[in-house]
Amino acid sequence: MSDSVPSRPAAFLDRDGVINVDLGYVHRVEDLEYIPGVAAAIRRLNQAGYLVIVVTNQSGIGRGYYDEAAMDAVHKALRDMLAQSGAAIDAVYACPFHPEAEIERYRHPDHPDRKPNPGLLQRAMRDFPIDRERSFMIGDKDSDMEAARRAGVAGHLFQGGDLDAFVQEILAA
Length: 173
Ligand SMILES: [Mg+2]
Hints:
The protein is α/β, with parallel strands linked by helices. It is built from six helices and five strands; from the N terminus they run βαβααβαβαβα. The chain has helices at residues 38-47, 59-62, 68-84, 119-127, 142-151, 163-172; strands spanning 10-13, 51-57, 91-95, 136-139, 154-157. It has a five-stranded parallel sheet. Helix 1 links the parallel strand 1 and strand 2 (51-57). Bound molecules: magnesium ion (MG). Magnesium ion (MG) is lined by residues 14, 16-17, 22, 139-141.
């Protein structure tokens, strides 16, 4: 096995409810309202050597509420805003599929990427040299915790408050 690229732990972050306030199917840049402490939290993870990877269900695409271009614009704005505060997101993985999607190509009874399935995390672990044992997921729903469990990483349920304080506790544990 080649050790040319050292593996790093990853912090998998859910999007809505962890990075931005979950207003329901957020798909416009003007609806991005950030969770307190998010930039500091991500900066802290960057400095601690973690890859920061966003894993998000975006069934609004399958439901026809918005398209992938709108989602990409939101993610670009989000990354740009965080970058201005010195916080880097390494990758974003999104799942547009849903069992009852209006748009047929997004209709899938149980897509492996859709949390609580672990597909998005597993894709990231294929794309990056990730040290799974030291990795964790932060989400605000049980489905996030389930996806983490099934991907073999620790899950931490964020129930609001300051994200940086939450991350600080995880890193100190
Ligand atoms: Mg969420």
